[in-house]
Specification:
mainly alpha, two-stranded parallel ribbon, 67% helix
């Protein structure tokens, strides 16, 4: 009971602090029972600590939030152009800039380097919102929905990354989520580009949709 009371008292909004306190309490408890050096106990301690680092999963958009369109070559072309145009309208939704901000902040212990993350987070949220307004044919709605939700996750993750100096575990968990969601979004874009190509939807070089060919080239 005393150990459980201490565990509750150790909880904090700062994940790093909470994990450190809990790990100390759990390790002390294990040591008092003559354990701690054995592998099963160590694995349990690590699992308990890791469970506190996971950020809350959220459901952002559903199929009901999408703007449906008829399934025709014309609507596919319009959707393809609309998606690229929307991306072009949000240049600050930039993963490289987000990673650079975190890298600079951690390399130089410079909190001012994290300031751009607020703008980057807002840009990803706006990008996801605007993409949801682009009329999408039914056959590609599931993939498109996944793309929009990946971008929404990147928005939230960028906000968590701002904590990398004051709450390193929270910040690093945000970084991991940001990179994972970004990787998934890239794969979805490649798949969508392939579907456009297989459907015979080609774009003129002066159309925004011409950029889809860059994903096929990969």
């Amino acid at each position: 009971n005393a150990v459980n009371t201490l565990r509750e008292a150790a909880k904090s909004s700062n994940i790093t602090t909470s994990v450190a306190r809990s790990l100390f309490i759990n390790l002390s408890d294990a040591s008092s029972q003559g354990m701690g050096s054995d592998i099963p106990t160590q694995e349990k301690l690590i699992a308990d600590a890791s469970s506190q680092i996971q950020l809350n999963a959220k459901t952002y958009y559903t199929a009901a939030d999408m703007t449906p369109a008829a399934q025709t070559p014309a609507t596919m072309r319009a959707w393809g152009n609309g998606v690229i145009k929307t991306f072009n309208n949000h240049p600050k939704a930039n993963a490289a800039d987000a990673l650079f901000a975190v890298g600079k902040a951690t390399d130089y212990a410079d909190s001012s380097a994290l300031v751009p993350l607020a703008t980057i987070s807002a840009a990803y949220a706006a990008l996801a919102s605007d993409l949801a307004e682009v009329p999408v044919p039914q056959t590609i709605t599931p993939l498109y929905l996944q793309l929009i939700n990946d971008l929404s996750r990147m928005s939230d993750a960028a906000t968590e990354m701002k904590n990398v100096l004051d709450d390193p575990l929270r910040g690093l968990a945000g970084l991991q989520t940001f990179q994972t969601a970004g990787g998934e979004a890239a794969r979805v874009l490649i798949t969508l580009a392939e579907q456009l190509s297989k459907g015979g939807i080609l774009f003129n070089k002066d159309e925004p949709g011409a950029a889809w060919s860059l994903f096929i080239a990969r």
